[in-house]
């Protein structure tokens, strides 16, 4: 299996080369050259597998034995999921009125990102130690990716990680889960801007192939296809928990920021998994406007109770459009040039292909988020985070119209969002770990709007390379 760019202008690469990279050299995003199919018989065989074994089976569809031998692949997943706090890894909880929640937040950073990043860290370690090579990871985070990526690689001698977060736009706990990590290979920048503003730095640096190659620069965000690949596992797992006979369709409700989960889901659907999706968003995300007409202009991002979703443009849309255009790289290149100029214009056939698998629900502001949090507590004595609440809000409003099983993906623990829980007038959960964070020393660098962020981060990468040459 090789991987090629959505824009068609870069050479195909191996799994290892894709893993140890970010954007393709033509600015596109990697996808597998072919998508394998799974039969109902295969799904039935997978239905009772423990989560780490299911991960091996799904991943082996895309990772050849010559890239990672089966025994090594199994060890990577077993080791990654051994850090989770519950044996099921992803428990499904059943609540009043048929609400089903898939809890994706039992890893070390208490967010769904751990499911893929714990594995990604082990893949990095596997290949870098094999080659005695150093790598620098560059992360733009809207709240949870940064802490999950840090937890995956903190203390590694072969990896340094630079995390850029939007100062004042995430919760105190989210920020402290990054700034209190004092390992010498972790470098955190707090920037005076939105996640979309910070993503410009990532695109600028990965847009310089010579710089990327010289400094072994890579990304652990979901622009790295390995993240999307591993996220496919919880899509398969949720489906098989709800439909173990593999004889019907399941609706999966995805709180959506960068659209990594729904991209993973679309690939699972391409493989033959009978699933459809609801992208639950706030009004920062342009998805609802795109799905209405295929067109929209990008604008400003405002702060909401769901900070990880305060993203204007979900960058994984590039992959979804590629899949829905049947691999039309020329079209994707044109679409993305328009996006770079602040406009989105999607052809009708691509839009219709999206609508056949995805619908979008836009929450009616913070008040509906708080209402969903409160109702879920009042009816179940069960706390949900504000992102999960957007998916739950959709379920509360449309449950009578849903045909067949459905589940809301709970993307983060409510422990990370005490402000939103308190604003919803329900008991605020706490833990000794959260209390300890509030007392811990911090280390970070602040960058202001008038500074050249790209130049500063570029210089930091060069400094790291001098100290830790490959």
From TrEMBL:
<dbReference type="GO" id="GO:0030170">
    <property type="term" value="F:pyridoxal phosphate binding"/>
</dbReference>
<feature type="modified residue" description="N6-(pyridoxal phosphate)lysine">
    <location>
        <position position="113"/>
    </location>
</feature>
<comment type="similarity">
    <text>Belongs to the threonine synthase family.</text>
</comment>
<dbReference type="Pfam" id="PF00291">
    <property type="entry name" value="PALP"/>
</dbReference>
<dbReference type="GO" id="GO:0046360">
    <property type="term" value="P:2-oxobutyrate biosynthetic process"/>
</dbReference>
<keyword id="KW-0663">Pyridoxal phosphate</keyword>
<feature type="domain" description="Tryptophan synthase beta chain-like PALP">
    <location>
        <begin position="105"/>
        <end position="410"/>
    </location>
</feature>
<keyword id="KW-0456">Lyase</keyword>
<dbReference type="InterPro" id="IPR037158">
    <property type="entry name" value="Thr_synth_N_sf"/>
</dbReference>
<dbReference type="InterPro" id="IPR004450">
    <property type="entry name" value="Thr_synthase-like"/>
</dbReference>
<dbReference type="InterPro" id="IPR001926">
    <property type="entry name" value="TrpB-like_PALP"/>
</dbReference>
<dbReference type="Pfam" id="PF14821">
    <property type="entry name" value="Thr_synth_N"/>
</dbReference>
<feature type="domain" description="Threonine synthase N-terminal">
    <location>
        <begin position="2"/>
        <end position="81"/>
    </location>
</feature>
<dbReference type="GO" id="GO:0016829">
    <property type="term" value="F:lyase activity"/>
</dbReference>
<dbReference type="InterPro" id="IPR029144">
    <property type="entry name" value="Thr_synth_N"/>
</dbReference>
<dbReference type="InterPro" id="IPR051166">
    <property type="entry name" value="Threonine_Synthase"/>
</dbReference>
<protein>
    <recommendedName>
        <fullName>Threonine synthase-like 2</fullName>
    </recommendedName>
</protein>
<dbReference type="GO" id="GO:0009071">
    <property type="term" value="P:serine family amino acid catabolic process"/>
</dbReference>
<dbReference type="InterPro" id="IPR036052">
    <property type="entry name" value="TrpB-like_PALP_sf"/>
</dbReference>
């Amino acid at each position: 299996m090789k991987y090629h760019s959505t824009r068609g202008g870069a050479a195909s690469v191996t799994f290892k080369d894709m893993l140890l990279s970010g954007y393709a050299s033509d600015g596109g995003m990697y996808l597998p050259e072919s998508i394998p199919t799974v039969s109902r018989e295969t799904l039935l065989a997978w239905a009772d597998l423990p989560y780490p074994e299911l991960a091996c089976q799904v991943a082996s569809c895309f990772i050849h034995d010559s890239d990672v031998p089966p025994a090594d692949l199994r060890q990577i997943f077993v080791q990654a999921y051994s850090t989770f706090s519950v044996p099921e890894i992803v428990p499904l909880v059943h609540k009043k009125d048929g609400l089903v929640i898939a809890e994706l937040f039992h890893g070390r950073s208490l967010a769904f990102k751990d499911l893929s990043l714990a594995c990604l860290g082990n893949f990095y370690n596997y290949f870098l130690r094999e080659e005695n090579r150093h790598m620098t990871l560059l992360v733009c985070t809207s709240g949870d990716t940064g802490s999950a990526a840090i937890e995956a690689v903190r203390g590694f001698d072969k990896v340094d990680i630079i995390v850029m977060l939007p100062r004042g736009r995430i919760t105190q706990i989210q920020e402290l889960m990054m700034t209190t990590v004092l390992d010498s290979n972790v470098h955190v920048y707090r920037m005076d801007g939105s996640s979309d503003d910070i993503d410009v730095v990532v695109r600028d640096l990965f847009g310089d192939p010579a710089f990327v190659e010289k400094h072994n620069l890579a990304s652990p965000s979901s622009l790295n296809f390995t993240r999307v690949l591993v996220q496919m596992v919880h899509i398969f797992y949720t489906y098989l928990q709800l439909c173990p006979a593999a004889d019907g369709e399941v609706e999966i409700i995805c709180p959506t920021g960068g659209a990594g989960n729904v991209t993973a889901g679309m690939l699972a659907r391409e493989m033959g998994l009978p699933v459809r999706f609801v992208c639950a968003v706030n009004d920062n995300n342009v998805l609802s406007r795109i799905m209405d007409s295929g067109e929209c202009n990008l604008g400003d991002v405002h702060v909401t109770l769901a900070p990880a979703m305060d993203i204007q443009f979900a960058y994984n849309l590039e992959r979804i459009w590629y899949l829905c255009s049947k691999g039309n790289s020329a079209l994707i290149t044109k679409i993305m040039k328009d996006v770079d100029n602040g406009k989105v214009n999607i052809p009708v056939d691509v839009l219709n292909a999206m609508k056949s698998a995805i619908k979008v629900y836009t929450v009616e502001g913070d008040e509906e988020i708080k209402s969903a949090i409160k109702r879920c507590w009042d009816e179940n004595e069960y706390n949900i985070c504000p992102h999960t609440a957007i998916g739950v809000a959709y379920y509360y409003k449309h449950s009578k119209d849903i045909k067949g099983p459905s589940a809301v993906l709970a993307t983060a623990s409510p422990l990370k969002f005490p402000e939103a829980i308190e604003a919803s007038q329900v008991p605020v959960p706490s833990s000794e770990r959260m209390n300890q964070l509030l007392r811990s020393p911090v280390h970070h660098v602040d960058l202001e709007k008038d500074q050249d962020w790209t130049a500063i981060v570029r210089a930091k990468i060069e400094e790291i390379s001098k100290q830790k040459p490959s």
